[in-house]
Amino acid sequence: MNEMILETERLVLRKLEQGDFDEVCKLLQDPVVMYAYEGAFSDQEVQAWLDKMFQRYEDDGFALWAVIEKSNGELIGQCGITYQEYNGGRVLEVGYLFRQEFWHKGFATEAAIACKEYAFQVLNFDEVYSIIRDSNVASQNVARRNGMIEVDTLVKHYRGVEMPHIVFRVSRENNLKK
Fold it and tell me: What is the domain range of residue 68?
């Protein structure tokens, strides 16, 4: 198993690996979980997703990580840090995606806060973002619990659909004032 990147009270975050394919399918092939992506992924799209994360580990040193629940060792989601296009440049985003049976238990918030702190303390970034589909209220609430505020809106185009998104941000300075 890959080495741990982050640890929280209930979770371990580590790099995804090819052996996680079946577990990642449980997440990315669930149409309820993937509604913000306009539907579940095929096996080929899951593999492309994993390959993209592997490439980001190589290129950036970070990406979305596997979220493992300590109590049972199960991969329950993904959370991490990626570069996203915004306002003509690239910003650091805290992103998260969890299997629906693990929703509303605080796991996304716990993992997202740990990733934000990692971005500030380890990667030494001054601000981080979360860019969330406007219909994804639960994820917006996680961003707010992560100390983020709404700063903008934008439209992403994915699978032929225009998707309004809300841009959330927190700065290191504002994070320290909490």
Answer: 4-176
- The backbone torsions φ and ψ at residue 131, rounded to the nearest 5 degrees and listed phi first, read -110, 110
Q: Specify whether the CB–CB gap between 141 and 150 falls below 8 A.
A: no
Give the pLDDT confidence of 35-82 residue by residue, as tens digits: 777 789 999 999 999 999 999 999 999 999 999 999 999 999 999 999
In the chain, how many domains are there?
A: 1
**79 touches 119 (CB < 8 A):** no
DSSP string for residues in 38-67: TSPPPHHHHHHHHHHHHHHHHHHS--EEEE
Tokens 């009270």, residue? 9
110-165 pLDDT per residue, tens: 999 999 999 999 999 999 999 999 999 999 999 999 999 999 999 988 777 788 99
Q: 127 φ, ψ to 5°?
A: -155, 155
CB atoms within 10 A of CB 55: 11
- In this structure, which amino acid lies at residue 178? K
Check which CATH number belongs to the domain holding 160 and give it.
3.40.630.30
